């Protein structure tokens, strides 16, 4: 007998990780950026600006960045790693490269550079943004498993400091391009060391059966090393390993670091070269919901420094300069997405009544829930609720039942049309993965400080979105 006939209406159960809130209106501080608070009346406020004003003035959906939080996070990464890898401790220093694919625009490229970080790119478009922002080429890295001739030529002209070579084909191509330009390309080899990071399968990238990198176990990395070591047009700077994303287990990084340093020792001995750089990649896990328990930045830096020192001692090699490439960990917690509620629906399901709260964006501005089964949290942002907490599912407005933003969260049961809902930690892989599904324009990104509110990415308008359709005459565009 269906549940709704068998007894009184009951709500769907909460997932085991989601605690019943003491106060459904309170913000869980660890999920929000430094300068986000709630006023006594329950209005979410960022650096003194209320989201009710921001929504009124700038519209929804909008991504909102806490600029001071972002720069503090970038500076904190650099200072924690610089302290752990200092020459006083017998190490050879460190570089932190922000992974631009997480979220990139010229303002962010500039802030990252001013904070002393380098910038990783993986396409012509990303390099163009870095260059327009005034980031010097030698502070830029270029990744990618299938770089085009145009991208490699641009990188050499720009003076990119590190090209992460990902295949044997690329070695041949890059060598010929560098030779034709009469120059020498700076090369780091991206190797896969067979470490499987403990994270969601779709975003783990160090399995051997995957498109990235040169396999150590299959001998491809050794072949690549020989080719680069013997090339007059390639400068062999070092090795790179990236084991995945949203990783909470330190041991994956430790094993990967040990294997890369072991490979480095073999290559240096065999080819009589010095490899001054080792890049340990990014993927440091962050907190999207209360179930996530990230490793503190300074602790991770310290652990990695100890592994590097110990392995190099054991191998009898010098210590390389280390680099890391955090993307998500720097930008994600510094932004939230502000939506307005349109419709609220109670749906009778096998496990009880589920409340669907539909907002004015969705999988076009945050596809991570649909793509990776990611969990997010959210909060009513325009008022306090006096109602009992209820489990809700926040969904978008797209023609797709998988168009879910927040799978499960407690909100006051009276959430209704016209309310504002804010989803924290949407800085990484949300705007950068935005799409125009259902012909929705992509939202803008508002950068907020105490004395300034400005677009760092303007909201796309209909004429921008539709101009690639030659059938849209000017008159039909908004
Ligand atoms: C994606 C990526 C990163 C950044 O990953 P995060 O999870 O955002 O820290 C770093 N390095 C490489 C090579 C990547 O592909």
TrEMBL record:
Alphabetic keyword roster: Amino-acid biosynthesis, Decarboxylase, Lyase, Lysine biosynthesis, Pyridoxal phosphate
Binding-site residues for pyridoxal 5'-phosphate, renumbered to this chain: 283, 325-328, 429
Orn/DAP/Arg decarboxylase 2 C-terminal domain boundaries: 333-427
GO BP terms in the entry: lysine biosynthetic process via diaminopimelate
Residues of the Orn/DAP/Arg decarboxylase 2 N-terminal domain: 88-332
EC number, UniProt record: 4.1.1.20
Residue positions where N6-(pyridoxal phosphate)lysine is found in the record: 101
Record-annotated active site: 399 (proton donor)
Catalytic activity as recorded in UniProt: meso-2,6-diaminopimelate + H(+) = L-lysine + CO2
Subunit organization: Homodimer.
HAMAP family: LysA
Family the UniProt entry places it in: Belongs to the Orn/Lys/Arg decarboxylase class-II family. LysA subfamily.
Role of this protein: Specifically catalyzes the decarboxylation of meso-diaminopimelate (meso-DAP) to L-lysine.
Protein name (Swiss-Prot/TrEMBL): Diaminopimelate decarboxylase
Species per Swiss-Prot/TrEMBL record: Brevibacterium sandarakinum
Name of encoding gene: lysA
